[in-house]
Amino acid sequence: MKQKINLRLSLIALIAIITTTDGITFVYYNLFQGQVRRDLQQNAGLLMETEVFQKAYTSGKEHTDSLAHLSAGNLRITWIDADGTVLFDNDTNIAGLSNHLDRPEIRMAFENGEGESTRRSDTMNMNTFYYAVLLDNGTVLRVSTQARTIFSVLMTALPVIGAIVVVILLGCVLIGHFLTGQLMRPIEEMAEHLDEGYHAPAYKELEPFADKIRSQHENILAAARSRQDFTANVSHELKTPIAAITGYAELLENHLVDADSEAHVARQIRHNADRLHSLVTDIIQLSELDHKELPRKFEQIDLLAVARECTEAHLPMAAKRNIKLTCGGTSAGINADKRLIREMIDNLIQNAVRYNKENGTVRVHVTIENGHPVITVTDTGIGIPADQQDRVFERFYRVDKSRSRETGGTGLGLAIVKHIAELHAAEISLQSALNKGTKICVRF
Question: Cys bridge to 381: 186, 340, 356, 440, which one at CB 3.0-4.6 A?
Answer without folding.
Answer: 356
